[in-house]
């Protein structure tokens, strides 16, 4: 039975899971206690998801704990570098190469002068945020012993195009608001436990950290199939 519902995350994390939230720190606990924010009307949107089959090869809680211990003992080992190379091809189309083997194509919609052959860069930002949320939910779910079988994120970003087209100095060129939902299927996991998980994720999701506090980001939790 599908018990999906949008949750107003306002309860404290379960005391039985506070020990598992040692990875969250005070910031994670504060986010868990603060609760969710209300969704607002939006413009451009992106949906991402992780199928159940992809969950099987996720790192175990033990493996994640080993990495935490490694970075605690050797902070320098935690400093890593990621790279991307991109080139404008024709018109407003661009191709980015990552790790010398992955290609990511960008374009703009026709209304903005492009040919709409690929997502535009800000849509890829939404996709990056959604994917990063899903990965972080799975990783922290492993540590907390939560049997996550599926995570999906739907996001919508709002931009005032006056910023990009230099029409108004009061309008920022990028997103001013991002809203959305994350839906988690985690068996009979209690709501209180999922709230604690959300607090950990929102405190440690790298892409979310890059966007806030400059962008007003609101992601509500939806309890998926089979949850208590």
- Number of β-strand runs: 8
The pLDDT mean sits at 82
Helix and strand content put the structural class at alpha+beta
Q: Name the poorly predicted regions.
A: 1-43
Q: Tell me the radius of gyration.
A: 19 Å
CA-CA gap between termini: 11 Å
In N-to-C order, the SSE pattern is EHEHEEEHEEHHE
> Helix segment count?
5
Give the fraction of residues assigned to helices: 25-40%
What strand order characterises the main sheet? Answer: 1-8-7-6-2
Name the overall outline.
globular
For the sheet with most strands, the description reads: 5 strands, mixed
Protein architecture, described:
It contains 5 helices and 8 strands. It has 228 residues and is an alpha+beta fold. The strands form 2 sheets. Strands 1-8-7-6-2 form a 5-stranded mixed beta sheet, covered by helices on one side. A 3-stranded antiparallel beta sheet has the order 3-4-5, with no helix packed on it. The model is unreliable at 1-43 (pLDDT under 50).
